[in-house]
Amino acid sequence: GRQDLVEHLRDLQTNIMLQRNLSRQQQEKPKQEEEKPKPIVESQPSPVPNQVEVDSTERFRGRVFIMVSDAHRLTHRTIVMRDALQLQGCEVHVISEIRGGTLPKPDVIVASNPHQTPRVLESLAACSAVRIPIILDLDDDFEHIPVSHPAYSQIGLGNMISAKAYTASILLSAMITAPSQNLANNMLSAGYNARFMPDGWTRVNQLWQRRPSFRPRVHIAWLGQAGLFDDIASIRRVIIRTLREFANTQLVISGNKQVFQMFDAVPDDRRVFLPSVEVSDYPYLLDQADILLLPLRNTPYNQSVSDRALVEAGVKHIPWLASPMPAVTAWQAGGLVAETPEEWHTLLRHLVMDAELRMKLGDAGLSRAESREAYTLGKQWVRLMDEVIQNARNRKKSA
Of 146, 169, 317, 356, which residue is least crowded by CB atoms under 10 Å? Predict the structure, then answer.
C-alpha cells in the first residue's frame, strides 16, 4: 500500500541493472578489442540505453483535461494534480465545460467531483460517447459524509440530483482515483475499478518553503482541515486543561466560528480565531501552528479521511497529535497517536514541554512529506494514465 516505496524500488532496480550492464560491458570490451581489431562492437546499440529510451518515449506526455465545477476556485488536490502532470511534460487544461471547437481533443479526462455541477456531467457524457477515457477523481468520501459537515449542502448526496449525478459520474468513468487507501478499497469492494492516488503538495507555491519566525508562546492549533465539530468537542476538556497548566500556550482555531465559541472559558488573550483562506494561502495559515491537533472519532467518514493534513504538517515541520484512524497509522511519521482522553492529555503535555521532541517529530514529518511532492506524484499519475489509455485501446480493438 506504499506507492512511494514502489517508486523508490523501481528506481533502485533500474540503477542496479544499469550498473551491472555497464560493468559487464567494461569487462567484455578489452576481450573484443584483442580478438577483433575493428571496432565492430561500437556499431551495436547497448541494451541499457535502448531500454531507457523506450521508457522515456512510452511515458505519457499527452493532453489532459481536468474538469472541475469552478475553474477559478480549484481544490488543493486539483492544484497539486495539475502541477504534477505539468512537471511530467503533459499539456494540461483545467476547464469547467467543453465547447465545440475551442480546444483540441484530449487524450484523457480527469473529472474532479463532477456531481457538484450538472454541466460537467453533460460534457463527460459527450466525451464518453466518442470513447475518450475518463478518470473520476474524488476529493472525499461523499457517500459517508455526515449531514453535520459544513459543506454538506454543496458536496453531499442529500438530494436526488446530486445522488444521480454521483452515480452517473461513476458509470461514465474508466477509473476512479481516491485520496485514501480505505476509500479506494471501498470502491473496489463495490465492484468499481479504483486506485489510491495520494494527496500531496507542490513547490510551485513558494509559501510551502517559508518558515515562520520565533514566537515565545506554543500555539496549539485546530485548523479545521480534518475533523468536524463533534471531533474537536471530544477533546475540549483536554485542551482547556492543558492551556491552564501551561501559561506559555495559546489556542488557535480556524475556519469554524462555532468551534471557537466552544472555548469561551479560555481567556481572550489566550485564544485566536483565524478565518478560512484561499487554497494558495493555506501554507501561511499553517505557519500559525506549533502543534497540530487532529482528533477524529471512529466513524465511516473518518475511516476514509485522507492523510493530507499530516502531509502538510510535515512540509511545514509541525508535529501533530491525532486519533488512530487508518490514514494516521499508515503515515506514522511526524507526530503522536492518542486514543483515550488520558493519552491525549499526557502526549499533549509532552509536546508542549519538550521542544526537542517537537523538533525531532518535525524533522521526521518533513522527510516523509518529500515523497508527496508534486513531481514525485506526477510519475504515479502518468503511469495511471498510460494504463487507462491502453485499456481503452484494447477495449476498442476487441469491440
Answer: 356
d(CA 261, CA 252): 12
Residue 51 reports pLDDT greater than 60: no
Q: How far is CA 210 from CA 172, 283, 285, in A?
A: 41, 8, 12
Report the Cα 168 to chain-centroid distance in Å. 25
225 within 8 A of 292, measured Cβ to Cβ: no
Angle at 393 between CA 389 and CA 395, to 5 degrees: 115
Backbone angles phi, psi at 23, to 5 degrees: -65, -40
The span from the CA of 394 to the CA of 399, in Å, is 9
Distance from C-alpha of 268 to C-alpha of 321, rounded to nearest angstrom: 24
> 291 pairs with which residues across the strands?
220
At residue 172, the pLDDT reads 93
How far is the C-alpha of 306 from the C-alpha of 328, rounded, in Å? 9
Total residues belonging to the chain:
399
Q: pTM to 2 decimals?
A: 0.81
- Beta pairing, strands 320-322 & 249-254: unpaired
> What is the structure's pLDDT at 101?
62
Where residue 354 falls among pLDDT bands split at 50, 70, 90? very high
Task: Specify the amino acid at residue 5.
Answer: L
For the stretch 70-98, what's the b/e string if a residue is b when 16 or more beta carbons lie within 10 angstroms of its beta carbon? Answer: eeeebbbbbbbbbbbbbbbebebbbbbeb
Crossing angle between the packed helical segments 160-172 and 118-129, to the nearest 10 degrees: 20
Q: What is the DSSP letter of 142?
A: T
